[in-house]
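Deliverable D5.2: sample structural annotation.
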Amino acid sequence: MRAEAAPGAATRMSFSDIDGWARDDQSAALAAFRRSCARIVSLPAAAPLDTKSGDTFYGRAGDWQPACHAAALVAPGANNARGFFQHWFVPVKYADEQGLFTGYYEPEMKGALTRGGVYQTPVLRAPPGFRMVAGGGSFPARAAIEDGALDTEKLALVWLESPIDAFFLHVQGSGRVKLETGETVRLSFAAKTGHPYTSIGKLLIDRGELTRETVSMQTIRAWLLAHPADGRALMRQNQSYIFFRILRNVKADAGPPGAEGVNLTPGRSLAIDRAYHPLGTLLWLTTAHPTVDGSGSVPFARLMVAQDTGSAIKGRQRADIFFGSGTDAGEIAGRMKADGELIALVPKDIAPR
C-alpha cells in the first residue's frame, strides 16, 4: 500500500538536505525507537499504527514491521544507527507553516502517603468503574472535585504540600513524590475527566497579567504564589482533571510511560497531535531550547520518536519535547517555547514520490 500525501502537503528529501543530520547521535533515537517497535511488531500487519490517526500517510503496521525487526539487530554506535535509518526510511518535508515547540518534564515534589500537617492536597486515582465521556458529561469538573464531590480519602494516592504543585503535576502528566522516609513514589497519568483543558497561561495573557513573550511555567507559578485566592480561582477555570496511578518496579533512571505505553527518553521522546502523527513514528526536529538559567538558547536538531500526546498539542507542526526529570529539566521545559520544523521519516516503500 502506497501512502498518498495530501496535494502539495509533503515532498521527499535527501538526508544530506537535513541540517544537522550527520552531527546527531542517532543511536539514542534508535534506543527509543526500539521501545516503540515492541508495540508495532505486536500489531496485525494490516492494522493502523495508531487507532487515533489516519493510516494513509504513514502506512500501516506492516509497512513498519520489517524496519522494526531490523532495528533489533543494529550493532552499537552512532554510525550504525544512522546507516539503519538511512537504509529503511526517507525524510518527508511538510509544506506547513513554521511550527511551535514547547517542553514538558517529570516534576519532583514532597509528599506523604497519609493526610497530615502540611500535606493537605490529594492526588487521586480514578473512581472504580470510571469511564471518560467526551466533554465530561455529568462527571464533576475540577472545582467540584476539589470541593469534595468524590471520596477523596479513599481515592488519594498521595498528599502534597501545595495545590500549585498538584496543578502542575496534572499539566505534566507524571511526577516523582519524595516521602519523608526517603522513598520515592512515581506517579503516571491514568485517566482524565473529559472536561475541556484550558491554558491558564493564555488566561493570564488575556487579562494582561503576562505577555506572550514572558509567559512560562516559572512566571505562571510566580503569579499563582503571589495571588493565592485569585490563583485558586484561576486554576479552577481549567475544568480538566487528571487521575493518576502509581508506577511500580520502575528503574529510577527510567522515564515515565507516555501515551504509547513505553518509557519516555529525555531529549528523544515527543508528545504530538495524534490526528497528524501516529504514536511510534519518527520525526526530525529542528528548533532551539533555553538554557537552564534562562539566559540564552541552545540549537536543538535531533531525530525524535512520537511516544506521547497532550491536550494542548494541536497541529502537524506542534509538539512537546520531553526533557526528563527534576529541577534542571523543569527549568528548560518551563521556558521552552520556540519556532521550528518537523520532518517525517517514512518507510521507503510508502513514501510519496
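Annotation notes: The chain is about 25% helix and 25% strand. The chain has a mean pLDDT of 94.
The annotation will be released with the project's public dataset once the embargo ends.
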